[in-house]
Amino acid sequence: MNITIITILFSLLLSPVLYGQNGEMKLVQTADQNVYKLYFSSDIASDVKVSVRNQAKKTVFTRKIKDKKGFILPIDFSEFTSDTYSVELFSPLFVLYDTIAYQSATDRFISNFEWEVVENKNKVIVTALKPMSDEVTVLIKDNNNNEIDKQQIPGNRFGVRVFNFDGINSDVIYVSFYYKGEVVISKEFPIQ
Predict the structure, then answer these.
(1) Alpha carbon of 146 to those of 149, 150, 153, 174, 175: distances in Å?
(2) Given this model, what pLDDT does residue 147 score?
(3) Is 169 helix (H, G, I), strand (E, B) or coil?
(4) How many other CB atoms are there within 10 angstroms of residue 23's CB atom?
(5) 75: pLDDT strictly greater than 80
(6) Which has more confidence, 191 or 110?
(7) According to the model, what pLDDT value does residue 168 have?
(8) Strand, coil or helix: what is 9?
(9) Phi and psi torsions of 174, nearest 5°
(10) Which residues contact 160 (CB under 8 A, 6 or more apart)?
(11) Element holding 164 (H helix, E strand)
């Protein structure tokens, strides 16, 4: 009987500690769109583990943080592919969870354009659906890898561009777009 009373008293004493504690987690995308900041706060300091998993349940990021009541943790998604990611925060007292639908810079760039081939495939019209902050370089080459045209266009002035291939002695034209110094898309256009 004494053991039961001690167990009940012990449970009553611990219940405010175990069940009265909670934490909050918030994910905020930064201006550069590849970095999210995880804001965490809790009633009590504890060790926590942050994990990010993709839809295939593969862990792509993990970080352990010792004895904190709160912190701000930047998570850089730029090395990840476009996917929906689960962000989980584990503490001895609770688990917090949120999801992020992340789109890579390449996919954001590609989705910002519409392509149309006109006039017997001798012209390509490229339309930027919204302005971009950085310069776009358009490089056009023939099937012998000879440079036909190169344009550096401010992202906020791209608008609609027409690329004319009349008079070019080639079977195929390659149009490549560079953004922030990296090729993000190359398209092949057969010439008739």
Answers:
(1) 9, 11, 21, 10, 12
(2) 87
(3) coil
(4) 19
(5) yes
(6) 110
(7) 76
(8) helix
(9) -110, 125
(10) 125, 126, 127, 128
(11) strand 160-164
